[in-house]
Records
---
Amino acid sequence: MSNSLDSYLVLSGLLFAIGTFGFLARRNAISMLMSIELMLNAVNLSVLAFGAFVAPLTTHAAVIALLVIAVAAAEATVGLAIVIAIYRNRKTPLVDEYDSMRE
Amino acid sequence: MPIGDSIPLVGVRWDDVLFVILAAILLGSALLVVTLRDIIRCGLALTVSFASLAGIYALLGDPLVAATEVLVYIGAISILILFAIMMTQTKNAPTRLVFQTQAWIAAVAAVVIAVVIAATVLTTTWPSGGQRLATSTADVARMLFSEYVLPFEVVSVLLTAAVVGAVYLARRDSSPGEEDRP
């Protein structure tokens, strides 16, 4: 099982689906950011799985995964800063109460 | 003392056992992240899922990426998320509704995505050798600083810009009356 590419890709797909559910269903902005982290990790897992099973991609996959981790760190930093800035103005972390732009 | 390739008596390979255990921890903690009511526990479950993912990376033969996952995700991003949770938590938050009112649509969408991805993966013939290949850290370093040196520099500039932007956004505004807005 650990020697088949399929099992890693299915695992990554399941993780991505869980992240999608969390992103769509949670009300808290930070929960949504956590779900985005789950989805990014799922994609990274599939990149590394391809790298581990397809010989010409082995080194490329590790380099790409490292770059993705760095970009994800930047995304988390800016996302959390935006949530904190909105919280300071609106006093709530719940996204369905961020509806003042509608009015 | 060296241990064999597979568990004695049972005949199951150690790698398979490790993969099943790590995958179960990963999916279980990811489900806890999206379903738990107390958001601090969600953050801690997220840390657990990062740790099991690092284990899977090590199992895939990528020790450098596994170490980076531990350093960056467990060491930095989890802590950042926990700090943000503590800065934005209100007293009545855990007792209120956790999910949007249309959460079942999200659940259906997630199940559809999972089924589509699984079906695609299982019906496609991948050019896979059927054997995991270990990644050489020296090769990764050489490629990162030769072929991928431009993306590397761009990412470093992006990180600097992101950190400066985050400090600017999260800075406490000193102008009077700004903080008391409801």
---
Amino acid sequence: MGLLKKIDRLTLSWLVLMGLTAVTLLFARHGDAGGGVGIAGAALLLALAVAKGREILLHYLELDHAGPGWRLLMTVWLVLLCGAILLVTAAGALGWVGPH
Amino acid sequence: MADVDMTAPQDRPGGLDALPGNLMMWILIFSELAVFGVAFLGFATARVLDPATFAAGQAHLNGTLGALNTMVLVTSGYLAARAVAAGRRGAAKQARRAMLAAAAVGSVFLAVKAVEYSATLGAGLTIDSDTFFTLYFLLTGFHALHVVLGIVILLLVSRSGPETLVENLETGAAFWHMVDLVWVILYPLVYLIR
């Protein structure tokens, strides 16, 4: 814990981003070997993207100092976009929409 | 926390002044995020309409290189943010150095992208091959163009005089973080979800 206290918030953000990317690396190895990810995998990948995006918005782009309005607006953009991508992907995987 | 606050942005007034850097840059950032958002939804929809073509195309991509490039961009973004923090502290020399380092690391992204493109093009896969490769080259190419522009901006702002240094560093870094943000969605969408 002593070490964590010495790390400033920006460095912590970088470490979090590297850690989350390491998780996507597992998916990448799996995919490069020819594997699919399914709906749950897509959901997890998009959740990781939201987590990374939030880290960038709040600490790289400093929205944590910009007031709740900007934070909400940008977070809503991020979540809505990734949610819509998941919805479209799931609708295809479940056969609701697709080639005829 | 006291030593951390030195590098943190000062409390800003509300409204448009609450954002770091120049307002014009934020207007550009909002329009870029809107355009990329629509393009990403278009890609997801096109995949659902032709899953076989997209799966075959994705099998040619190297997801591991994509993850490497994510690490490159977030590291470069970190250095750019450090540069802004150093500028605010009054450490102009250190700020300029950190921004140049951010640009240098950013150029690694382009080198990796060049390796990736030479592999796909070498396999005879071009923007004309099929719907997947048309969208793949358009999305990744458009993003890579933003990386090129971002690197130029980082190099330019690192040359600012003392009067304008902090605001210019903030403005350049904001553009760079937007490029980063777009990539963390583009990467899983195009390379991993299949």
